[in-house]
Design brief:
single chain; 32% helix
Length: 97
């Protein structure tokens, strides 16, 4: 299993918009075999951190993610995206403990 950790900086005052939209993308990810392991918002620093997993190695993850990114299902979900991400950090994570 490969885990990608995603941390977004949300524009001030826009967290509610993002949180209202985020559940829209989860079933789309699931259609491609991804699993959301957790999703947490931190209001004080206006950050949203989540982890998504997929069976296989990083190459498998990236291959499926490419298909997901190009899919009409993802495009449809992003029609209502509130465009409020000011910055992001995305990387693959490994267990630390």
């Amino acid at each position: 299993m490969t885990v990608q950790l995603r941390r977004y900086e949300i524009e001030p005052g826009r967290m509610a918009d993002f949180l209202a939209w985020f559940p829209t993308i989860v079933p789309v990810r699931e259609q491609f075999g991804f699993r959301v392991l957790f999703a947490l918002s931190e209001q004080e620093h206006s950050t949203f951190t989540w982890a998504v997993a997929h069976d296989g190695d990083e190459a498998d993850f990236l291959e499926v993610e490419e298909r997901y990114n190009a899919s009409p299902e993802r495009a449809a979900a992003f029609e209502t995206f509130p465009a409020c991400i000011a910055g992001k950090e995305i990387g693959f994570a490994t267990p630390a403990v």
